[in-house]
Specification:
- The structure is a homodimer of 194-residue chains.
- Chain A has 194 residues and is of the alpha+beta class.
- Chain A has one domain: Nucleoside Triphosphate Pyrophosphohydrolase, CATH 3.90.79.10.
- Chain A is 24% helix and 31% strand.
- In chain A, the strands form 2 sheets. In chain A, strands 4, 5, 6, 7, 8, 9, 10 and 11 form an 8-stranded mixed sheet that branches. A 3-stranded antiparallel sheet of chain A has the order 1-2-3, with no helix packed on it.
- The radius of gyration of chain A is 19 Å and the shape is elongated.
- At the A-B interface, strand 8 of A face strand 8 of B.
- The structure holds zinc ion (2 copies).
- One zinc ion binds next to loops of chain A.
- Chains A, B: InterPro entries: NUDIX_hydrolase-like_dom_sf, NUDIX_hydrolase_dom, Nudix_N.
- Chains A, B: Pfam families: NUDIX, Zn_ribbon_Nudix.
- Chains A, B: Keywords: Hydrolase.
Amino acid sequence: MNFCSECGHPVRVGIPDDDNRPRHICDNCHTIHYQNPKIVAGTVPVYQDKVLLCKRAIEPRVGYWTLPAGFMENEETTADAAARETWEEAQAQVDIRHLYMLIDTTAISQVYMMFLADMPEPVFGAGPESLEVGLFSEDEIPWDELAFPTIEKTLRQYFSDRRQGHFPLHQCQVTKEDRDRFFTSLHHQAVSNG
Amino acid sequence: MNFCSECGHPVRVGIPDDDNRPRHICDNCHTIHYQNPKIVAGTVPVYQDKVLLCKRAIEPRVGYWTLPAGFMENEETTADAAARETWEEAQAQVDIRHLYMLIDTTAISQVYMMFLADMPEPVFGAGPESLEVGLFSEDEIPWDELAFPTIEKTLRQYFSDRRQGHFPLHQCQVTKEDRDRFFTSLHHQAVSNG
Ligand SMILES: [Zn+2]
Ligand SMILES: [Zn+2]
């Protein structure tokens, strides 16, 4: 942020009175511009013993596999956001069960909210942000070609919980170290494959 | 938003290619400015049969009672945000148990995440955003002087669950109609009291 979105004046970074964090401050119209984490809402769409994955058609991570998920929009509920993303990316209608994974990804200030969801029918297709969409059983999951560490964490938890037969809410964190490890190991693999 | 925060050029509202919602668009540097819901993180701080409430010293709703809660900051976890707000507003150290209420307030694009929390000791005080802080049993709660409908919903759920002895995650919504009803009934009360 370089300019005030209200008045167009250049902003400076400073700690406002009665605050303890640096913010973008406009000295012309006196607006303080706060930046806050974003919610990424998505689903684990389940049909029988399989889950639905999408191969990404857009950056970041084109060509890698993900669960349907994306930024929550204003004026929708978290569950509606998760169902909407599932429709947009995988053209699948799902019945949302409940919030399943709450993952704080502090390094990029995103809060992942992944909902467990049932697919009444195995009907799906590639939306504009997907190259390909498919149902995968545990041993078919492309573990080495997943897009994000949050997705790997969610899928590993899901198949583990599936063996126990219950799916409580899990609250966890993906740290900067988790991200470095995830992307580095993929990179090494790409090099050794190339 | 009137000006591009990147380059200072005036923005226009329009639907970008490959999108289906109006956004603020900069035709100079081609940035699309997205707006997303904000997370309000807080706690239900419990000591024995009582919960800790704060009388607000700041707008909105000065003088009304709330649970400690506030906007989540970048680079912190949801649970850390809830504990931080509890410290800042009520000067209480809490042990976070788990996410308890997930409340979509679509009319104002806020997602409330209220965590159940234990107070090891009945130690608290009024932070700079509070006029007064206190522990309240169910029949002492100032039901007619609560700050927000999300707070009333959380407290009613808590005392109801307390009678059952278990506290599952509740996912619910506060609609525009809920808000209108809440604030209107308070206003009528203020008038009839005045
Ligand atoms: Zn300004
Ligand atoms: Zn611009």
